[in-house]
Amino acid sequence: MGPIWVLLIEDNESDQVLTRRLMADARRASFHLVIAGSLAEGVARAAERTPDIILVDLHLEESQGIETLRQARALLPQVPLLVLTGLDDEQAALQALQEGAQDYLVKGCFEGDTLARVIRYAIERHQAQAALRRYQDRLEDLVEERSASLVRTNHMLEEEIRRHCQTETELLAANVRLSDALIALKRAQRCLIQSERLSALGQMAARMMHDFNNALMPIQGYTELLLEQPDLLEQRVETMKYLHEIRAATLRAAQEIRQLREFYQPARSGERQSVDLNLLLDTALARERERAGREPGNAVPSVSVVRNLGTVPAIPGNDAELQEAFASILANAYEAMPDGGKLTVTTRACDAGVEVTISDTGVGMAESTLQRCFEPFFSTKGAHAAGIGLAVVYGIVRAHGGQVDVRSHAGRGTTVVVVLPATLADVPRDASPLVPAARVPARALRILIIDDDGAICRLLGDHFRRRDHQVTSAICGQDGLRLFQPRAYDLVITDRAMPDISGDEVAARIRSQDPAVAILMLTGFGDLMKDAGTHPAGINGVVSKPVALEELDRAVAGVVG
Question: Is residue 298 predicted with pLDDT exceeding 90?
Fold first, then answer.
């Protein structure tokens, strides 16, 4: 990632010098600073090359206060603005943000790293706002297109009615067609919104999984160090240091748990096997009825079960995951019939593979609830419910290459239809292990560790030094590249997601300098990379965080030979 282009509009030379020094002191970002002494000069400089962000002083010789910001916003509307001023005025800060500034900094009250972080966040917020505006514009265009289509349909229907108004039957037929068109439009809009929402939630879950894996790594690693070397417990200072690291990582993990609540991504790494859906459904029905009977103070509801299990082919899948999915659907059906009812389970072969239909005669769902039933954390059962059942079902079915549809009406029951492919070609396949098993290396290694998480750097350093290896650590990609010298290291262990430069680029640049050095990627995205079959160029192996230290030793031996 190249330097961030910053345009500074500031007529005070000492403040210009101070800003340049602060940017030079920033450790986790690099900047290219362009300085303009007035708004007019700033517009001219921006015309030569559009900056990534503009830092503007509210008090210029040609303009004062918020008017300066308004003029800058009008002249350079597409570039994020960060306000710099010598006055610590909360009211002015609020007004600046309302006028379109991304953030507000008081001169002399921040350091280089703070300025770098605020600049990065301001650019990211501006990009996110621009993406949201594009999405809103696109959604409005879709609504306008559908509305225009509906208007055309209405005109056509009106013409049809005028031409064939002789009989009441023809008029009713036209009304039926109009109603069908409206229902189809609502269904299409619902599918579009649901698809976008679930895509955004998937990205959020992936990010949170990465952070949680980072938090687990020090907990597991320092615990293993203490377990394999009990004599460390007699060294109070060393033991307390490890315990502080474990506690800090535990607090981070607890925070991630609070954010995730009980929502999780179902496992996708289990091996595929031949699954008899009829047998699986019989087992799930028996277990669900047994579970309902075991709940304290809850008698088994009088539910009659109708099994219409046809002759269907076996499907490739993960038995445990599919058991979990259908158990969740059946549990919802039983809970929807507290006073008893009828549960119908049907299987049949179809062109897409095997179709499973589960229907109940329970309380059903209103239209507003049906539209949100796949959302994680959404529940109509009160605060005690996690609201993740159908979200998990959706994830498992999609991971098996299938489709799931829910149909329901308030007071008239619910039907869940699951279609699963019957051929391996339609099912996502698991990638083979990215790092071969090997024995622990006998010789001492020179190791460079690159990770933006200081706790992980310290853990790995302590571990490898106790294996008599020489260890050097860097807390970002740029520091790692500065420390690296050809033939100075036998092994480089790098994270993938780092704020200044990605592990992929770090590996590529190190590989270009030293083709013989072994490079191991240790990342919280390891499982996702395995599922996607991703293997960055120049990498000898990928290990997922958190990893047992013994497994890490084997991975190291596998890449150094």
Answer: no
428 — pLDDT class (breaks 50, 70, 90): very low
> In the chain, which segments carry CATH 3.30.565.10?
273-426
Give the separation between CA 40 and CA 72, rounded to whole angstroms: 9
Between CA 56 and CA 87 the distance in angstroms is: 14
pLDDT tens digits along 5-29? 888 888 888 888 888 888 887 777 7
Determine the 3-state secondary structure of 357 from DSSP: strand
**Secondary structure of 15-29 in the HEC alphabet?**
HHHHHHHHHHHCCCC
3-state secondary structure 378-429: CCCCCCCCCCCHHHHHHHHHHHCCCEEEEEECCCCCEEEEEEECCCHHHCCC
Helix (H, G, I), strand (E, B) or coil at 122: helix
More confident residue, 243 or 450: 450
Homologous superfamily of 446-560: Response regulator (3.40.50.2300)
Give me the pLDDT at residue 441, please. 62
Residue 48 in contact with residue 32, Cβ under 8 Å?
A: no
CATH no. for 4-129? 3.40.50.2300
Centre a 10 Å sphere on the Cβ of residue 399 and count the other Cβ atoms it contains. Answer: 21
Q: What angle do CA 54, 55, 61 make, to 5 degrees?
A: 115
Which two tokens mark 398? Answer: 């999609």
SS3 32: strand
CATH 3.40.50.2300 in the chain is located at 4-129, 446-560
Q: Which tokens in the block code for residue 475?
A: 């807390």
- Residue 482 vs residue 527, higher pLDDT: 482
Closest CA to 36 of 76, 3, 78: 76
Q: Encode pLDDT of 515-533 as tens digits.
A: 999 999 999 877 777 766 7
CA–CA dist 307, 289 (Å, integer): 14
Q: Which CATH number fits domain 273-426: 3.60.70.12, 3.30.565.10, 3.30.750.24, 3.90.550.10?
A: 3.30.565.10
- Ordered DSSP codes for 502-519: -HHHHHHHHHHH-TTSEE
With a pLDDT cut of 70, the percent of the chain lying above it is: 83
Higher pLDDT pick, 102 / 335? 335
Residue of 439, 491, 440, 494 lying closest to 470 (CA atoms): 491
> Using CA atoms, how far apart are residues 532 and 431, in angstroms rounded to an integer?
7
- The amino acid present at 212, given as its one-letter code, is F
Residues 559 and 519: their CA atoms lie apart, in Å, by 7
Residues with Cβ within 8 Å of residue 277, at least 6 apart in sequence: 312, 314, 315, 322, 347, 354, 356, 420
